[in-house]
Design a protein that fits this description.
It contains 12 helices and 10 strands. Helices cover about 45% and strands about 15% of the residues. It has 2 domains: about 100 residues, Rossmann fold (3-Layer(aba) Sandwich); about 150 residues, no CATH class. The strands form 2 sheets. Strands 3-4-2-1-5-6 form a 6-stranded mixed beta sheet, sandwiched between helices. Strands 7-10-8-9 form a 4-stranded mixed beta sheet. It is globular. The protein is of the alpha/beta class. A hairpin with a 4-residue loop joins strand 8 and strand 9.
């Protein structure tokens, strides 16, 4: 399916279809929550995965099926609910003709339409909302390794991302991040790729771009602004916030946390 549609048009399409959600991870569960918010859970006929999980056959009574079991059916649409790093690989495996990658629509499905578009926002306002966590520091260390300023940034990134998604996805996310940094280095800031924030300047989507912008000394970045009716922790989940407790519980030693503390100070300009 072409992506030249808006969220309202997508909802109309989904209301007329039987829905298979491909993905039961971080993105898949957000999309499931969004469908329930729009009262479309009755349209969901199954979840789908590449590799069935031992001991888990359903979510809220909705069956989980292998991708190989999916046959082309009339009035069925597969909603690919995964990170960008996986979308093409999954699309090539599908036998069902009609599918759509839903991540570009995800936050509007969850939060409604943005209340402001294409606003040039001071980076410092967003960075201040991350003072209690290490999301930006983890990304900053990965950027440093790209520029050969440390040898552990990639491992730190994968270890942190693996706290809220599987390791293979974390590795694929890192490759996409390296591609972002490479493009920024050679072609500059892509103003068409907006960061998503709420009215409290908390980051909804775009921590990689904010960390990269800070590394390159940029002062502002283009944002779309949403309401903050859904708390940011509920939106992302506690583990994705990468607080000190999350890192400790996830096996980060004191030396690793100290390195991240140093990067947080750099990011804050201290």
């Amino acid at each position: 399916m072409e992506y030249g549609i808006n969220v309202d048009e997508l909802l109309k399409i989904l209301s007329q279809k039987k829905i298979i959600i491909y993905g039961i991870g971080h993105v898949g569960m957000k999309f499931f929550y969004a469908l329930k918010k729009h009262r479309l859970e009755k349209n969901i006929i199954s979840f789908a995965v590449s590799t069935p999980l031992e001991g888990q056959s359903n979510i809220d009574g909705i069956p989980i099926r292998s991708i190989e079991e999916l046959d082309n059916q009339e009035s069925v649409i597969v909603c690919i609910a995964v990170h960008e790093a996986w979308k093409e690989k999954i699309a090539h495996k599908l036998k069902i003709v009609e599918y759509i990658w839903i991540y570009p629509f995800l936050y509007e499905l969850l939060l409604g339409h943005p209340i402001e578009l294409d606003v040039n926002v001071d980076l410092n306002r967003m960075i201040k909302t991350c003072m209690g966590d290490y999301r930006l520091a983890v990304r900053y260390m990965a950027i440093e390794q790209y520029f050969k300023k440390n040898k552990v940034g990639y491992d730190i990134y994968i270890k942190a991302a693996s706290l809220y998604c599987d390791k293979r996805t974390a590795e694929e996310r890192l490759l996409k991040f390296i591609e972002l940094v490479h493009n920024w280095e050679h072609f500059g800031y892509d103003k068409s790729s907006q960061v998503l924030i709420n009215t409290q300047y908390e980051i909804i989507d775009g921590t990689h771009r904010i960390a990269t912008a800070r590394y390159f000394g940029q002062k502002k970045i283009i944002c779309n602004i949403f309401s903050n009716e859904l708390p940011i922790t509920k939106l992302h989940g506690e583990k994705a916030m990468l607080t000190e407790k999350v890192l400790k519980d996830g096996g980060f030693c004191s030396e690793e946390r100290e390195e991240l503390d140093i990067r947080n100070k750099i990011i804050r300009g201290e």
